[in-house]
Amino acid sequence: MMLRVIGIRLLGMATVLLAVSALVFAFGALIPGDLTSVIVGQEGATEEQFEEVRRKLGLDKPLVVQYFFWLTNALQGDFGTSPITGRTVAADLLQQIPVSLELALLTLLVSTLIGLPAGIVAAVHANKRLDILIRTSLLVTFSVPIFVIGILLLLVGSRWAPDLFRVSFTPWAEDPMMHIRSMAMPLLTIAFPITAMTMQMTRGAMLEVLHSHYVVTARAVGVREKRIEYLHALRNALPPIVTFIGFQLGILLGGLIVVEQIFSLPGLGRGMLEAINTRDYPMVSATTLVFATAFVIINALVDMLYPLLDPRQRGR
Amino acid sequence: MTVSPDTQMPGHRLGRPMLLDQLLRHKGGAFGLAIMLLFIFLAAFGRFVAPYDPNANDYVSLLSSPSASHWFGTDELGRDTLSRVIDGSRIAVAVAFLSVSIAMAVGVVIGVVSGYFGGYVDAVLNRSQDVLFAFPTLLLAIILVAVLGPGLFNASLAIAIVYSPRFARMARASALSIKSSEFLDAARLAGVSTPVILIRHILPNVLPPVIVLAALSMSTAQLAYASLSFLGLGVSPPQADWGSMLSKGRDFITIAPWLVIWPTVALVLLMLAFNVLGDAIRDVLDPNHSSIGKNPDTLL
Known about the structure:
The structure holds 2 protein chains of 2 kinds.
Chain A: H1 2-30, H2 35-40, H3 47-57, H4 63-75, H5 89-124, H6 129-142, H7 146-160, H8 176-210, H9 213-220, H10 225-262, H11 268-278, H12 281-309
Chain B: H1 16-25, H2 27-49, H3 81-117, H4 119-133, H5 137-148, H6 152-178, H7 182-189, H8 194-230, H9 242-249, H10 258-285
Helix pairs in contact in B: 1-2, 2-3, 2-10, 3-4, 3-6, 3-8, 3-10, 5-6, 6-8, 8-9, 8-10, 9-10
């Protein structure tokens, strides 16, 4: 039964991914200009040279055929060669993905470690001073875009923490200490709003559960308050909180693009923006595809996690 | 909050004066409205209020700190920051209204058609929106701007495309829920044509929740644009624009912090106003809303 549900979900995911890849390809084809003019250059190129390059790249074939070749190559990890850098796109991706992935995972870790307990505390003390303080700061945080948080941190950092300010990105393998220092500000910037969201969601889910009949019953029969809060209630508040990770993920991925740009981190988001600016078509399509695929797959995983956390959902 | 009993009816049509009246009595509503009107005023008449031409270079006072002649200081080309912040409100206000209006119009049409006709049309429209939902919102906006090209209208259009499925879902749900109600059966029996039913009978019932969503979307739309502009995908220089001012000001953050502080203040103030006003409009139009999971998917 369980396997069948998972099978259906996987099939659905594959369909969405196929549609997403088609859209990504279409976007790439719709961006003004084309690869040929980038490679050949504007000056002194004859019509024959253009045709030659177009044939070589397969751009003379119908779009559907181009899409098919692009997708089958992409599935084998071949995204073509960048006309701008001359390197293969896959090689660049292999450099960029670990940077973004590290930042994303660290953010999730930090936001869960801080946001979850803070949300529980806020729910337990609902409408008391502590809760109101937390919620007011949340309202302010939600009103501040990530790049503003980054700018403000830079502003503060330039005055009070010059060690962390303007440290250019250093890979872990090169110098672990410098690596940590170069990641500190970006992590702080992106973890801020994500933690606030985790906290808000946890508070909401906990409040709902804390008012349910079985918690009232547990209280009535004399189960200790702490045990109710952290065992009974939290266990049942988890499914909506986990679902929320799906929402967060979109914000997290968008946040990566912004944060990498602010702090000049050589990640996937910065790679994408650079590619858009230099009209590096294979790179634009590849980075977009990686982002969208990660988004779809993780959302699907969260969906599949749901029945594990909520027994009522099993066997449906 | 005081709400007269008749507004509690779902789908009730609120007269405009009454909505305004209730908003003004709502604590946040009055505040949000006041700030928003201030920015709309600056957007419309900023050219007359601003002390300097926002794009005029002054090579005598480059990066000068705030003073009596330049309240908010000047930038690396000697342009007056106050005048540029005021001029930037034109873009911010325009994008917020433009993108949300387009998203609402497109979303409502798709949603109503989808919900009312159902079947094959509904399935196709739903699946195509699912594909849009499969992209992180900012990523989709970025790639759409790359396709459409930069500029005020194209950026608004990109944001509208990103947001329209939300409006479509909401309109679809409302249309679906009243599709089989008796007054529609009566209208159909009386021989009212389908377009008239859609416009005269379905639309008015679909609008209240959609208006709430539109109000709540204003701040995220403005924020989305600011992010695009910060990433270099907004209006072209030298047009003053808060996002690009921030991105440029970052290079001078140690020597001229006022270049990032004032655009930030303006940006956050307008967003806060949109947020508070959106909450107020929701409180007035939909008093029984749930506070959990409120507006979770912002664009950053």
